[in-house]
Amino acid sequence: MLFQFLGTAAAEGVPALWCCCERCVRSRQIGGRALRTRSQAIVDGALLIDFPSDTLDHLYRNGLDLLNVRDCLVTHTHGDHLYPTDVSMLRAGFSHVPPDYRITFRGSEAVRDALSGVLLQPEREGSAAFEVIRPFEPTAVGRYTVTAYPSIHDPAAGPLFYGISDGERAVLYAHDTGYFRDDVWAYWKETRPRFDLVSLDCTNACLPLTYIGHMGLTENAEVRRRMIDEGYADETTVFVSNHFSHNGIHVVYDDFVPIAAREGFLVSYDGMKIQL
Ligand SMILES: [Zn+2]
Ligand SMILES: [Zn+2]
Ligand SMILES: [Zn+2]
Fold it and tell me: If you measure from the C-alpha of residue 93 to the centroid of ligand 1, how many angstroms do you get, rounded to a whole number?
């Protein structure tokens, strides 16, 4: 399994639109891995996770072709994860696609509602579909088994995070979420999953937690310890901190790498590939 981070920022991007804070100014100066676009990832170049407004840029920069993508998991409706206007570019006259092309978006009912205006028009029905995915119900998605988990995040955005397995390797992509809910830990106690890659919400980096529904490095480290203690990960599991806000303390890529390493985490960057 090849997992690739395409965009690794929270809503505003890093550096943020307009922002002249110290982290944004330095990130602009450093460039490269310090520049973060909005959240998206892809498994094996085929299973897309989220569809933000930076999707077009991600495709160009990484040589990806949406015609190879037949499935897209959407975590929630926030704009850094879902931009329905670009989904509507699939309609007749805006994109010319092969007659047998079809992409299925999956997510919560809130995501379905957010996309209903762009997916349900007759001229697009053949090319795009939507299926509601329910928490704790493993679902076949292409050649993968996907399990959705409820997330502690803005309830109005219908937040889910995802476990994705190809039968040999498994990834947990946990965006956006605070510390995991008790029912997630209880489900794992029963089903005993094991993950090879875990990507955790690190919106706050080293900023003490001020907003329920995201995490920083302190909470990432608590999740990691508990996952290892309870057997869902081990020392070979790759843990990645991801989804950063420019408001996070020490969030500039070069600053955060050694700090995160002390807690056993890699730091994501746009384009980062992890071969499992
Ligand atoms: Zn987000
Ligand atoms: Zn800033
Ligand atoms: Zn969000």
Answer: 31
